[in-house]
Design a protein that fits this description.
The complex is a heterodimer of chains A (526) and B (185).
Chain A lengths: L1 H8 L9 H6 L3 H29 L10 H36 L7 H20 L27 H28 L12 H32 L13 H18 L2 H15 L6 H14 L15 H13 L1 H15 L8 H24 L1 H7 L3 H31 L5 H27 L14 H30 L36
Chain B lengths: L1 H35 L22 E9 L6 E4 L3 E4 L4 E9 L6 E10 L7 E6 L5 E3 L4 E10 L9 E10 L5 H12 L1
Classes of the chains: A mainly alpha (526), B alpha+beta (185).
């Protein structure tokens, strides 16, 4: 490895200066930082669409956006948040933390790492450009069901397809990098079952990415052929089948939702023991639980399609298979609770976010269990209940875990402690407002309010107004996070090597901030 | 670093294989649906076997029609419902008329409900096997001959066969051009 050799010769070798540092960098910490910054920018960008949606739904009637514009907003919100905010945030954490946690000097494929990052800004620029094109941005929802996304799609769909291709290539390269790093670059003595859970969850996520993202690439390629080359993959008139699109999409889509949550499990499994000052309960069962969730994720996809008219056997199969996932997930939740049991718990900001994750992700999991019941899903399908469910697992689930991880590792990244008082204010604002936003949506859904409609019946007014107030508050609160980060990067109390006394892991054996090159000589793990 | 290169190669192959698998899902889906009859599609042309036994049991078949999108072509079954015995061949027809002053090409797509019964409905002849060219203002009765399998499950006494009509003129410019050429001569 050339980078190791260079690091060994000049130990204080630092980064290049200026823009070139970021353009040409192959350093896992630089790339991790760029991923995290990009994902946060995308989080605010996708959040702006969410603010537009909640503004429109503040009162019944059409106020600010036409239904066409509204459709484009929900589509862009979903795409940006999934592919721009949550996924790159976890890749950023992986880049920063995996080499530090396994005692490796860098990622295994540093140049590919640079490339896989730099594809993304172009992919999202291409996706954003569609807003200014004839016919507007994609308007078919983030699931882009055919024929909405083929026969009836705006002309900008072609750009959307290429953007998805680029995002897919980036994720796959990132995943290959993670796998090769973990397989080949662990420090001596770092055996499989000694790896921190964040490393384990990411390894499994990377395999999910390699199995699922190419199928998505296939789906959008078929769309491209249907639109431009006159094929009929999804066109019934030519012998194709629109339902086939849904099968292919969800064959990717269901593993995708675990791609967005498994690394969150890893982050929380690092933070809860650190602040409960107890080792993680049931490490081995945690690893097996994550692996079985990942395997099950490939046989449950059609629970997203209970209403397409599947025969009873298929409904039952997908229903029971889905319910089966509650077992490994339950094991994880119980292990986390057992970790907390009789611990000396302190409530610093990362711990607050991790605890909120534990409670609210479980709420989202329970509404998921309700949705998995086939006959009940006939009622819940495409209502706000579904919106409430997946936002509970994605916002106080994935996003809170990312926030928790950011607060937890910020001292290691910047060398400074963040402002604890502001961090707690950020937490409480986020925690309260996110529940005000999404909890009422359960009731709206059960009462029959449909998804993806810019207007609603008068009886839904109160809960929608409540939800909008929560949503707008949550949005504004995130600006406080921007301030906290900037403040922490610029200065603050010096962070020691290991600022959290209960924290475990190799990342806490290097100085804070972590030097540009770490573990040029591999550490010994016993 | 031989292991690194070989690992990257393996993962690259896995990626390409999964991309291929996405496309393989298309024929797999068709085969799966054909074997299980899950999506209510009827099979292609059926060769009637003369020696089939006629089962003295009444099954009602309802015929439905639907138009895809906003087309002003009219499309209706001439027989709303037919009472049949499994094993015997029947013929029904759909009337389609083209109100336009230009030729159109149409394609009908069948769907049987309950879906699992699709495998027992054999079509000897059907307008849905091919695209149909309709001249301007033309009205035709399109025949469909079918036989219900004598193994038709006893617990069912009724099924419906629905056709959705697609205007596929844009996909078949050759047929349209040919028709216009013929009418000009």
């Amino acid at each position: 490895m050339s980078s190791t050799a260079v690091g060994a010769e000049h130990h204080d070798h630092g980064p290049a200066k200026g823009l070139k540092r970021w353009l040409y960098t192959t350093n896992h910490k630089d790339i991790g930082t760029m991923y995290l910054v990009l994902s946060f920018v995308m989080f605010l960008y996708g959040g702006a669409f969410a603010m537009g949606i909640r503004l429109e739904l503040f009162e019944p009637g059409i106020q600010y956006f036409s239904p066409e514009k509204y459709n484009q907003m929900i589509t862009m919100h979903g795409l940006i948040m999934v592919f721009g905010a949550v996924m790159p945030a976890f890749v950023g954490l992986a880049n920063w933390m995996i080499p530090l946690q396994i005692g490796a000097p860098d990622m295994a494929l540093p140049r590919m790492n640079n490339w896989s990052f730099w594809i993304l800004p172009f992919a999202f620029s291409m996706l954003s450009m569609t807003t200014f094109m004839d016919g507007g941005a994609p308007n078919f929802g983030w699931t882009f069901y055919a024929p909405l996304s083929t026969t009836y799609a705006p002309p900008s769909t072609t750009f959307f397809i290429f953007a998805v291709h680029m995002m897919g290539i980036s994720s796959i390269m990132g995943a290959i990098n993670v796998i090769v790093t973990i397989f080949n670059m662990r420090a001596p003595g770092m055996t499989w079952m000694k790896m921190p859970l964040f490393v384990w969850t990411w390894l499994i996520t990377a395999f999910l990415l390699i199995a699922a993202m190419p199928v998505l690439a296939g789906a959008v390629t078929m769309m491209l052929f249907d639109i431009h080359l006159g094929t009929s993959f999804f066109d019934a008139a030519g012998g194709g089948d629109p339902v086939l699109f849904q099968h292919i999409f969800w064959f990717f889509g269901h593993p995708e939702v675990y791609i967005m949550i498994l690394p969150a499990f890893g982050v929380v499994s690092a933070i809860l023991p650190a602040f409960a000052r107890k080792p993680l309960f049931g490490y081995t069962s945690m690893v097996w639980a994550v692996a079985s969730i990942a395997l099950l994720s490939f046989i449950v996809w059609a629970h997203h399609m209970f209403l397409v008219g599947m025969p009873l056997v298929a409904e039952l199969f997908f229903m029971y298979a889905t319910m089966l996932i509650a077992i490994p997930t339950g094991i994880k939740v119980f292990n986390w609770m057992a970790t907390l049991y009789q611990g000396s718990i302190t409530f610093e900001t990362p711990m607050l976010f991790a605890l909120a994750f534990l409670v609210l992700f479980t709420c989202g999991g329970l509404s998921g269990l309700m949705l998995s019941i086939g006959p009940a899903d006939f009622q819940y399908h495409d209502t706000y209940f579904v919106v409430a469910h997946f936002h509970y697992v994605l916002v106080p689930g994935a996003v809170f875990a990312i926030m928790a991880g950011a607060y937890y590792w910020l001292p290691k990244w910047t060398g400074h402690m963040y402002d604890e008082r502001l961090g707690k204010i950020h937490f409480w604002l986020s925690f309260i407002s996110i529940n005000v936003t999404f909890f009422p949506q359960h009731f709206l859904g059960l009462a029959g309010m449909p998804r993806r409609i810019p207007d609603y019946a008068l009886m839904f007014s109160d809960f929608n107004m409540m939800s909008s107030i929560g949503g707008l508050t949550y949005g504004v609160s995130q600006l406080l996070f921007v301030y906290i980060i900037i403040k922490c990067v610029r200065g603050g109390e010096k962070a020691s090597e290991k600022p959290w006394d209960g924290a475990e892991g190799l990342e806490w054996t290097v100085p804070s901030p972590a030097p540009y090159h770490t573990f040029s000589t591999p550490p010994k793990v016993d | 670093m031989a292991t690194e290169t070989s690992l990257v190669t393996k993962l690259g192959i896995a990626t390409v294989a999964m991309f291929g698998f996405g496309f393989a899902l298309v024929p797999l889906y068709d085969v799966f649906c054909e074997i299980t009859g899950f999506n209510g599609k009827t099979a292609g042309k059926y060769e009637a076997v003369e020696s089939q036994q006629v089962v003295q049991r009444d099954v009602d078949i309802q015929f439905l029609s639907a138009l895809n999108g906003s087309t002003s072509i009219s499309f209706k079954p001439n027989n709303r419902s037919v009472r049949v015995n499994p094993g015997r061949t029947y013929e029904i027809s759909y009337r389609v008329s083209n109100p336009h002053e230009r030729p159109v090409v149409i394609q009908a797509v069948p769907s049987v409900s309950p879906q699992l019964l699709a495998q027992y409905l054999h079509k000897v002849e059907c307008f849905c096997f091919n695209q149909q060219l309709l001249q301007p203002g033309e009205t035709v009765d399109m025949p469909m001959r079918f036989v219900l399998d004598q193994e038709f499950p006893e617990e069912y006494a009724k099924l419906s066969l629905a056709y959705t009509l697609f205007d596929v003129s844009e996909q078949f410019p050759d047929l349209i051009a040919g028709a216009q050429l013929a009418s000009n001569n």
